Amino acid sequence: MVKYKKKILILVLLAIFVIGISITSVSAAESSGGNTKAKKVSQSDVLKASKNIKTYTDKNKKLPNYVTIKNQKYSMEEYMHLSSLTIYYKYKQKKNTVAVKSGVKSPKSPSGSKINGKLNKKQFSTYNVNAYKYIKNYNRAPNFISTKLGKMKFQTFIYANSRILAWSADNGGKLPNTLTLSISATHPINKYFPKYSSSSDSSSGSGSQVVNPTKSVSMTNIFEASNR
Length: 228
Known about the structure:
- The protein is of the alpha+beta class and about 230 residues long.
- It contains 6 helices and 11 strands.
- Strands 5-8-11 form a 3-stranded antiparallel β-sheet. The protein has a two-stranded antiparallel sheet with strand order 1-4.
- α2 crosses α3 (about 75-90).
- Pfam families: PMBR (PF09373).
């Protein structure tokens, strides 16, 4: 009888042990599953994200703090990497998927000059290669990108890329032949710096700050991606 009770006790303890391991495993999977970004996304995913950024910016006169791709949130710094690589691939007519670079740091001190003029496809593609290389080397977004029109501020560059790729999304995936820009360094887009971290979660991203808010102005003719 004593031996029988010991066997029952051992079986009960084993059952409790197995159940405990199972619960721990499930909890660990649930806690880590939502924080891991994909290693790559498709070019079409980046185009869709670009349209969302353009739409948000046109409406709110500022960049969003993040953009969602396949249920994962990407900061504007991470989007800069994705969009720059996508534009390069499209310029080279490559169908490659786009590598994700997580945790890209914010530019230390975004700055730039008034941008007014036209860039052709080769030029804005080259500038995007420069942006991609900078992020790859330093794991940080640049303060500005040097162009023939002047130093293009971080926020201006992000919005320009969203316009290029939003146009691409509506035109069979090809790039526009030209991009016409007319925007000052103190434009409302450049006065707001988007901030997002993986620990923040709100409709526009938490931890953001509006610097010297101004009245909304029309975005008409500020940026124009054309096929002329």
